[in-house]
């Protein structure tokens, strides 16, 4: 298996606002070359936790005046969303 940094693909993904680097895995499967792109979550501040969704949710709520700077956020969750908040 070969691993490439996927630089060309990363440039495309960044245009959409995705900043987590991609790795391109090239390997042989049943005699055919296959390619898979995977996210390198070690570069993401919170790993693969739902930080993008929570950031967007909080940003929109702030822009609409539903929350104010310094407000406490209470989230009823037992999962990754609560950790991301």
UniProtKB/TrEMBL annotation:
Keyword DNA-binding: no
One Pfam family per UniProt: PALP
Keyword field: Pyridoxal phosphate
GO BP: alpha-amino acid metabolic process
InterPro entries recorded: Cys_Synth/Cystath_Beta-Synth, TrpB-like_PALP, TrpB-like_PALP_sf
Keyword Coiled coil: no
Record-linked Gene3D superfamilies: 3.40.50.1100
Domain Tryptophan synthase beta chain-like PALP residue range list: 16-84
Top-level taxon of the source organism: Bacteria
Cofactor(s) listed: pyridoxal 5'-phosphate
Xref: SUPFAM superfamilies: Tryptophan synthase beta subunit-like PLP-dependent enzymes
Designated name of the protein: Cysteine synthase/cystathionine beta-synthase family protein
């Amino acid at each position: 298996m070969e691993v490439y940094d996927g630089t060309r693909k990363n440039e495309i993904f960044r245009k959409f606002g995705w900043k987590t680097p991609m790795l391109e895995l090239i390997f042989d499967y049943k005699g055919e070359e296959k390619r898979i792109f995977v996210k390198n979550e070690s570069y993401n501040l919170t790993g693969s936790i739902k930080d993008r969704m929570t950031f967007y949710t909080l940003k929109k709520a702030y822009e609409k005046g539903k929350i104010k700077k310094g407000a406490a956020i209470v989230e009823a969750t037992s999962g990754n969303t609560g950790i991301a908040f």
